[in-house]
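Section handout 9: paired folding examples.
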Amino acid sequence: MNENIRTVKCGDRTVSYILTRKKVKNINLRIKPDGLVYISASGRVPIKYIENFIREKSEFILHALDRFAERGPSPMLPEDIGEFKSGDLIKFWGADCTLEIKVSENRREGVSMNGDILTVNVFSPDRAVNVLKKFYAEQTKSAFEDMNRRTCLMFRAKGYSVPFAEMQIRKMTSRWGSCHFSKGKIVMNSRLVLYPDICAAYVFVHEYAHFVVPDHSGKFYAVVADIMPDYNICRRILKE
């Protein structure tokens, strides 16, 4: 498999896309929230054919790119920011928190919160990313474990036959969660810690609803609404 960045003219605009050559039957198109266009195609498909395909889809592609551009940049996890100093703002469960970085005198590292102030105690300032990364991971795991348990109980209280899902947490770029209903497993996006916790609660409801209805039909969203009537507020926040 190999990748390269190319451009193609679509009317009066130029679209940049990342072409991945791999063993696939069709030309596959994905547009991610970072505003990048991804194309995968077999090595036997000519560039001319691929770029004609992009032009045919140009109305959809340009509309999606414009929509993502209007949203502005997405909040980032500590490890994606890379460097911090006191006074920086960082998202934590949807709130703008101000960082206060202190060099620890007692050789203990950790994070504490006082209102909207996140105090990071470190051995040296360059340790802030690692300490924050650990803090975010621990907070996410604790909150998600509680949400997983409560979501299961809510579904069962409504009479739905659902398993207590095995849960995995990982960073994802194109979806907030996924359900492997045949395995009784859900995967949750670690980036949800950057949004209000009600949004993470909605994603749990969404994934648990797949244990009842595996597709995204009207019946599926009826189940979601039965558990969380105002779920569309969360969808708007997450910009689904």
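Moving on to protein 2 of 2.
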Amino acid sequence: MFSKDNLPHEALPLPDQIERTDAEARRAADDFFDLMAKRHTIRDFSDRPVPREIIERAVATAGRAPSGANHQPWFFAAVADPALKALIRAEAEAEEAKFYDGGAGDEWLRALEPLGTDASKPHLEIAPWLIVVFAQRWGTYDDGTRFKNYYVPESVGIATGFLIAALHNAGLSALTHTPNPMKFLNSALNRPDSEKPVMILAVGHAAQTATVPAVAKMKKPLDDILKVY
């Protein structure tokens, strides 16, 4: 996609302009809020299969996110293979056991108590898909020389938000999981050192018996997260 040659700037007419009246824009904003207000983080997944093309389309949506210098410094590894999911679960639980055995510190563990989490992560095998998000710290040209990527954490964070919204829009649930450290994911998925794993998304349909912690329904009011100047 990138060339060592100088690429001149070329201005193209905006190809996709969405024209809405103020009233139409308000309805669209309200509709999207209502959709996203129904998004819940769950840990109880059904083993109901999810077609690969839905995952592919959601990742393609993530790939439309803005990024520093348009370098698109992300890679998504979608895992459905049961053996690989079992390996990822075993490695993640080993790190989580250290975390909950005191590695996190008392304050962090107290913060997690209302969520009811622990070192056991069965959802990593039950959910039909795991999507591992990698941040590409640098890229390489065809001849192997490196080029720098810019605003990598910000770009990958935006793309991941696109991905979660796309999955929810498709009627799927997702759980963000960040065992620390996550270097084992490079080995498990044969990804290069230039890529840093930043998150595992467990993806699938919620189980009929799925629950959410009561505290998760406590969202900050708009006045606490917005000031209009």
